[in-house]
From TrEMBL:
Domain of life (superkingdom): Bacteria
Organism: Amycolatopsis umgeniensis
Gene Ontology MF: a single term: peptide transmembrane transporter activity
Protein name: Peptide/nickel transport system substrate-binding protein
Signal peptide: 1-22
Alphabetical list of Pfam families matching this protein: SBP_bac_5
GO cellular component: ATP-binding cassette (ABC) transporter complex; periplasmic space
Annotated PANTHER family: MONOACYL PHOSPHATIDYLINOSITOL TETRAMANNOSIDE-BINDING PROTEIN LPQW-RELATED, PERIPLASMIC BINDING COMPONENT OF ABC TRANSPORTER
PROSITE patterns assigned to the protein according to its UniProt record, in alphabetical order: PROKAR_LIPOPROTEIN (PS51257)
This protein's UniProt keywords: Signal
InterPro entries for this protein: Peptide/Ni-bd (IPR030678), SBP_5 (IPR039424), SBP_5_dom (IPR000914)
Domain Solute-binding protein family: 114-508
GO biological process, one term: peptide transport
């Protein structure tokens, strides 16, 4: 799953911002619990959560090791580069790295009050946001967590820092929001001030946990004496060195370069076993609860994950890749003390069509949409996980959100006859093999995805649907498709994956506007001036009605392009035993509040 960062500003008191997962509905404060075995909703809030603030409760904890199964493996400490940007890194790093915000299980945006005293808009013209860091916050290597780290985060994500030859010094997956900050200043060690060139309502989505890397590690490894003295237009050699380290050297795990600022630190990473070990961060100033040790294992086969919980090999099964057989297994384990939960996520499964290959032909894009019967996919693959699952008919909005309109019900699943007519009308003709062709190009292509049983099943269903229309599809499974650079490089015909979002909409801009450099998540090559201008207007808007109107305009233009076909809002499913309560947070996974887990009595 890919991640991004997206929030509805109109659904929050102040403001809010989307991840590759590989998005929620209504007021961003409720999630569907269809299928859960108990009152899962009560587990969606932190034990010490208070109003708009989050702190980890200081609980008795859990002596011993808790083993957690997730769908895919860890690849990078810096999760904000295009080739590491993955929900599966976020699911681990949420316990390791601290940021300004915490999202609870209801997708409520809270101040991380263990690390920050406040985030305050001190001026509207220009918009100025001041962050106050708590005294005595430290990285696990005893270095201060302070304003230097916030400044580095802005420098790396701003898109303004260039090498001598004019290229991006830091290769960030997205610059949305950060690029609007034209002044970032450390007023003192604990006070960070940001001034914006234009209003940005989703400011609370910036400087999240995965965005803040340790400035002192960059300084030590690049011989930069003080990162805060390095401006985006400053010494090109220093910017190049800092950007190269930030982009390339925070991958995998190297203990001396990858300290923790959250309640846990990474102590081991076995790439072959796809396992990460976390232990308590001794310098953490917040609550001291949670398990003594956590082992997070990648288990790509969701059915095997369910069996592992049944057999006592893991304590928590946490899957964002729902599987009907696995769901039934997990729900059957209540007599063993297992609690099962499921809920709608701020995540959607979709097909992206590559404009740089044969799908530059709009008729072929339209015909593909017409042959894909999403209701069949949803009924066969999701009903056992979430009984009321339905196809998703918007890219920008989730069902129940203000602004949601059905933009795909009239475009997708119209059948083989409609698709064949679309191709015929556009000059395609069936060959002797029954497959349409035009100008020597057969309507034959691959759907690429990572190793995932449900996605394989999805492609199998679509292959059958397309064959009847004279379209030939091949399944291409690549275990490293999402994290090996192929997706980011646009190396596919059709990509099947998910986008996972925080409750902010602004960062969807990076996925769909025209790509001008490598700091973009628009891997498919979509370029449409209406989409570009609508997102620009929405992100800059200060009036919520204007913002909503422009997000809807962008949503309609994406649909009219036949660029991305949404399949469904992906439900999560998780189960656990031996722990008092666990909740699968839509964006950050189950470890978002692991520091307050207790052993079940």
């Amino acid at each position: 799953m890919r991640k991004s960062k997206a929030v509805s500003a109109w659904s929050l008191v102040a403001a809010s911002a989307l991840v590759l997962s590989a998005c929620s509905g209504g007021d961003s404060g409720s999630t569907d619990q269809n299928g859960s075995s108990t009152d899962i909703k009560s587990m969606a809030v932190g034990k010490a959560q208070n109003g708009e603030n989050f702190k980890l409760a200081d609980t008795p904890g859990y002596e011993g090791t808790v083993t957690v199964g997730i769908d895919d493996g860890y690849s990078g400490y810096n999760n904000d580069t295009p080739d590491t940007n993955s929900s599966y890194n976020t699911y681990i790093l949420t316990a390791v790295l601290a940021g300004a915000d915490v999202l609870d299980g209801n997708n409520k945006v809270l101040l991380n009050n263990d690390v920050f005293d406040s985030w305050e808009v001190t001026s509207k013209e220009p918009q100025t946001v001041v962050y106050k860091i708590k005294p005595n916050v430290k990285w696990s290597d005893d270095a201060a967590f302070d304003c230097d780290d916030m400044y580095l985060s802005w420098l790396a994500h701003s898109g303004k820092a260039k090498t001598a030859d004019g290229k991006q010094a830091f290769l960030a997956a997205s610059t949305t929001g950060y690029s609007l900050i034209n002044e970032a200043t450390c007023k003192d060690d604990l006070t960070f001030e940001t001034k914006y060139t234009e209003p940005y309502l989703d400011y609370k989505g910036l400087f999240n946990s995965t965005a803040i890397m340790p400035a002192h590690i960059i300084e030590k490894n690049t011989n930069i004496p003080d990162i805060t003295k390095l401006s985006p237009t400053g010494d090109a050699a220093q910017l190049t060195a800092a950007g190269k380290f930030w982009t390339n050297d925070f991958k995998g795990f190297k203990a001396e370069n990858m300290p923790a600022s959250g309640p846990y630190k990474i102590t081991a990473f076995d790439a072959n076993q796809k396992a990460v070990t976390l232990e308590k961060n001794p310098k953490w100033i917040g609550g001291k609860g949670g398990p003594s040790k956590i082992v997070v294992r990648a288990m790509e086969d969701t059915k095997a994950m369910a069996t592992a919980l049944q057999n006592g090999e893991i304590d928590v099964a946490a899957s964002t890749q729902p599987d009907a057989t696995a769901a039934n297994t997990l729900k059957s384990l209540s007599a063993q003390g297992v609690t099962y939960g499921s809920g709608s996520q701020l995540t959607f499964e979709h097909f992206d069509l590559n404009y740089k290959r044969m799908f530059k032909d709009k008729a072929l894009r339209k015909a593909f949409f017409e042959v894909v019967n999403r209701q069949e996919i949803t009924d066969k693959l999701l009903k056992e996980v979430q009984a009321d699952a339905t196809p998703l008919n918007s890219i920008v909005f989730m069902p129940g959100e203000q602004g949601f309109k059905d933009l795909y019900g009239s475009k997708a699943g119209l059948g083989a006859e409609a698709a064949a007519k679309t191709l015929t009308d556009a000059g395609w003709a069936k060959g002797a093999d029954g497959i349409f062709a035009k100008d020597g190009q057969r309507a034959s292509f691959k759907i690429s995805h990572n190793q995932n049983a449900r996605r394989t099943q999805t492609v199998e269903i679509v292959i059958s649907q397309a064959k009847a229309a004279g379209i030939e599809i091949t399944d291409e499974t690549d275990a490293n498709f999402l994290k090996g650079g192929r997706l980011a490089a646009g190396d596919y015909d059709v990509a099947l994956f998910g986008w996972s979002a925080a409750p902010f909409k602004a960062e969807q801009k990076s996925i769909y506007i025209t790509r001008v450099d490598d700091s973009s998540q628009n891997y498919q090559g979509l370029s449409n001036p209406t989409i570009d201008s609508a997102f620009e207007a929405a992100v800059k808007a200060t009036d919520e009605a204007v913002q909503l109107e422009n997000y809807q305009k962008a949503d309609q233009a994406i649909a009219d392009e036949y660029a991305t076909l949404p399949l469904f809002q992906t439900p999560s499913m998780w189960a656990f035993k031996g722990i008092d309560r666990t909740y699968m947070q839509s964006y950050n996974g189950v470890l978002w509040n692991v520091g307050e887990w207790e052993q079940k009595k």
